[in-house]
Amino acid sequence: MVGIAAWGAYAPRLRLSRKAVVEANAWVAPNLKSKGKGERSMANWDEDALTMAVEAARDALGAGDDRSHIDALYFASTTAPFADRLNAGVVSAALTLEKSITASDVTGSQRCGLTALADALAAVSGGAAKTALVAAGERRKARAVSALELDCGDGAAAFVVTAEGGAADFLGRGSVTDDFVDHFRGNDGGFDYSWEERWIRDEGIVKLVPPAIRRALEAAGVPATDVAHFCFPSTFSGMAATLAKTLGIPAEAVRDNLAAVLGEAGSAHGPLMLAHALEQAKAGEIIVVAQFGQGAEALVFRATGAADAKPARGVTGALADRQEETNYLKFLMFNGLVDWDKGMRAEKDNKTALTTLYRNEDMILGLVGGRCRETGVVQFPRTRISVAPNNPAVDTQEPYRFAERKASVLSYSADYLTFSMAPPNHYGMIVFEGGGRIMMDITDVSPGDVDTGLPVKMVFRIKDIDEKRGFTRYFWKAAPDRSAASAQTAVAAE
Amino acid sequence: MAQGIRDKVAILGMGCSKFGERWDCGPDDLMVEAYIEAMSDAGIEPSQLDAAWFSTHVDEMGTGKGGTPMSIALRLPNIAVTRVENFCASGSEAFRGAVYAVASGAADIAIALGVEKLKDTGYGGLPVANPGTLTPQVMPNGSAPGNFAQLASAYRAKHGVSKDDLKRAIAHVSVKSHANGAKNAKAHLRKPITVDQVLNAPMIAEPLGLFDCCGVSDGAACAIVTTPEIAKAMGKKNLTMVKAIQLSVSNGYESQYNGWDGSYFHTARIAAGKAYREAGIERPREQISMMEVHDCFSITELVTMEDLFISPEGQGWRDVLDGFYDADGGVPCQIDGGLKCFGHPIGASGLRMLYEMYLQLQGRAGERQLSDPVFGMTHNLGGAPASNVCSVAIIGQEGA
Predict the structure, then answer these.
(1) Band of the pLDDT at A187, cuts 50, 70, 90?
(2) Phi and psi for A59 in degrees, rounded to 5?
(3) Do A411 and B147 count as a contact with CB atoms less than 8 A apart?
(4) pTM value?
(5) Is the ipTM of this complex over 0.90?
(6) Is the CB of A429 inside 8 Å of chain B's CB atoms?
(7) What are residue B47's phi and psi, to 5 degrees?
(8) Chain B within 8 Å of A440 (Cβ-Cβ)?
């Protein structure tokens, strides 16, 4: 039956120590000291809602999927980089989806990740789509020295929805829409403005969420007592447990909201908790996921426990791939909260020629090169005349995707001279198994991490930001393939 | 193979400005300085010039496009001026154009002049270039040292050289050039340095530290060429002859095809092979008396010793440490201080290399004079290891 066929998740590798934050701010905000426990995920400077959503979608689809079966795409976020440019269009191009898909950005509320999933389920149920991809990503915006910057985290989750499902059967949906403004953020690039917590809890969440969940359970025909996994993101302590009690959901069904290890990833957080539940649910178990935001969205699923639906990484893998960050100032700089001296070399104009971008769309956004039909020689970029030294065949290139190929470092440098948001800027010649090479940026590394032979994987990232015009430029970068590196070490040890 | 240009063209005169941070000079002043010296050396009047080639690379600094900047600065008599640009090898390209014009018979006397005014940016290092529209969307935001530094990781991996050994070898490259540059009044950097200073300098692009990088300098250099017959008719003796000029240009093999291992210059090997054939040189390690190579970075010079077939592959770092390229070594290299210390005003550098080889062959190199040089080689590179242009020129004694 209609349901989730696959899921994926992404969390940035950096995890900011909350202790480091509250200690740095203790002089001005001693009241935040009690929040100094655990860590929150922290996007690298070159990650945003869109890049993280792409990574989660890649996790959901797997490396072997040719993606031609996707016919609908929903991208959900309240921190999408563009107010007027289809963000889902960038996701689609990065994933090399077909041009004939329907695509939409779902936004405007913390619940929009679940709304996007619900819309996808409705589209497939109604026959408007056969295979829908939902990707929710959030790079939270918070002022320095705020409770929010400690509570929230960055991340993404993605789902593939089909008529056959496979991983989880969709049982029911319930919604409440009410213009209850617990917080808002204007369209001017500012920050959240929140009202009093006690009011949000007692008049908002407690009154508006239960009706949505009740309606969803009713539609599913499932009693609350049968719920095995209850996913409800909230930064208020004990909020999910209170709702569970109100609804009659068993207390042990209330799931960890990952506050200690990830923080709350906004509209992607309900989807992330659902993905986490799917990774752990046994066959037949009932999962309820709900999220608050100008009312609430609630969905009910029954897990199939199908092992083959599990993603390569998922939430579990994403959480395990971590590096502690104790430099609060770095976090502030990555989030544009410090007006720092970038030096004259940063003065270069990052204007993007939109004609060039469109002409090379599959190359730039999809990392698509070429393969010669006659010789099989693979190259990047695709050109009319093949690079093959002994056979420069003309017009024989067919599109060839590089993004999911295994690769390694041929040569590199860590450059302290050039401007970088995270110096030294690492880049080098990356060679791909099966042919082809690209001189590209290497991200998610520190000095000493890179050497010739290092296995790398491709990641979709921000290339540059044109602050003058508000345009974000994307491309692919190499990041250490830490799973391949550890496998290599294990082989060497044998 | 084509007949080539061996012994068809003689150098009539050369000039070179002082290189360095010429805060008080614009590009015009630098051009005039090199031009007046070259014209005086040649002993000719402007009216005797038939054609000119002008090289400058960095458009961002506003020296000017086209042939007019040179023609106006030098008040040339409305002759043809061709501006050439081929990255850091632009100077050699101006020389090639002038030499070919004379060799073809189209000009009796031709002039090549290269200039670069770099020190108007407000910061150290090369100016940030305008990368166009596609490059910045895909290529790393890199720098020249970051691109050339990559030779080191690939060279280490290929030849099994440790990080420390290679760092010491490239340190010796710079120490040697500083020792040479200290004896050159026109050089930008004139202080001798020690290996420890190199090893402990601030990192620029791993593994290249500050002293592994050449000077960013203002300067100009100039050559006037003619046929040996005309030179002799003018009473010139001890002619310095052009023996070979070759240029090899990357076609994407290094950057797009999985063949090149990143540890050497594909083009340099091609250009060197062709230049030796053109000049009739069969045993370069024995026959080349001296050379000026494109030591933009210490690692570039080290691998170039192998690309020019002077050191056996994988052994260049040992030759360097053994002092084979020092002033008293087997093939003295960068006897004028090289890009490292003489400096690197981009459009002038290829002509500056030829200037030193010419002075040495003429016996006019003063304190730096080597004994009885026969062949001097220049190696002038532009671009980056994965995509570049490489010029190799050989000049030598008449009859050699």
Answers:
(1) confident
(2) -65, -40
(3) no
(4) 0.96
(5) yes
(6) yes
(7) -65, -15
(8) yes
